[in-house]
């Protein structure tokens, strides 16, 4: 497994890097058979250290966790504990899912946009009602079953996931509702 361990405006020593690699190897060995790479970033937020970790699995799914603590090792331990919990749940769901995936998840290219409006005072009238596009990037749309899409959304900690439904050929959306349940939008069922 490839590791990328870095710090944002802080120095990461060899001891911390080897500790991170050892712990992530142990976690991945228990639950994820073939992780491809891991990205761990340490940063400071006021008086606390923040640890963000993302592990890419060979099935195409990503697991990510974020934690903070007063000490850098404690921040990593809390992050590793969250990652362990996510991968344990993922493995449990795979066992319960009755269907083994033989091939990796198929991905399709798409554009992703982030929209933001300018900050306006309450008295000022905007020149146009159109928001400004502040970022545009290429992204991947996975081909998954609905259950796998929900699992990927929860592992990524995302509020919404767009995916190509394996059972049908159209694009679908799963999202977390305000009441805590999962919503599923299947436009092909409207026809």
TrEMBL record:
Location of this chain's protein in the cell: Cytoplasm
InterPro entries with a match to the protein in the record: HPF/YfiA_ribosome-assoc, HPF_long/plastid, RHF-like, RHF/RaiA, Ribosom_S30AE_C, Ribosom_S30AE_C_sf
Gene3D superfamilies in alphabetical order: Ribosome hibernation promotion factor-like, Sigma 54 modulation/S30EA ribosomal protein, C-terminal domain
Keywords: Cytoplasm, Translation regulation
HAMAP family in the cross-refs: HPF
Family to which this protein belongs: Belongs to the HPF/YfiA ribosome-associated protein family. Long HPF subfamily.
Name this polypeptide is given: Ribosome hibernation promoting factor
Organism from which the protein derives: Arenibacterium halophilum
């Amino acid at each position: 497994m490839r590791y990328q361990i870095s710090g944002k405006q802080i120095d990461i020593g060899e001891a911390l890097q080897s500790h991170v690699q050892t712990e992530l190897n142990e976690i991945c060995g228990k639950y994820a058979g073939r992780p491809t790479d891991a990205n761990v970033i340490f940063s400071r937020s006021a008086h606390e250290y923040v640890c963000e970790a993302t592990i890419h699995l060979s099935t195409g799914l990503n697991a990510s966790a974020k934690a903070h603590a007063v000490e850098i090792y404690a921040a990593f331990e809390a992050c590793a504990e969250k990652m362990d919990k996510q991968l344990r749940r993922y493995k449990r769901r795979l066992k319960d899912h009755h269907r083994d995936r033989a091939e990796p998840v198929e991905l399709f290219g798409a554009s992703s946009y982030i929209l933001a409006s300018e900050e306006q005072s309450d008295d000022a009238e905007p020149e146009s009602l159109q928001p400004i596009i502040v970022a545009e990037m290429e992204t991947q749309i996975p081909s998954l079953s609905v259950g796998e899409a929900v699992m990927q959304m929860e592992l990524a900690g995302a509020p919404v996931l767009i995916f190509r439904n394996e059972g049908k050929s159209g694009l679908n959306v799963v999202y977390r509702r305000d009441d805590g349940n999962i919503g599923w939008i299947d436009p092909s069922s409207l026809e």
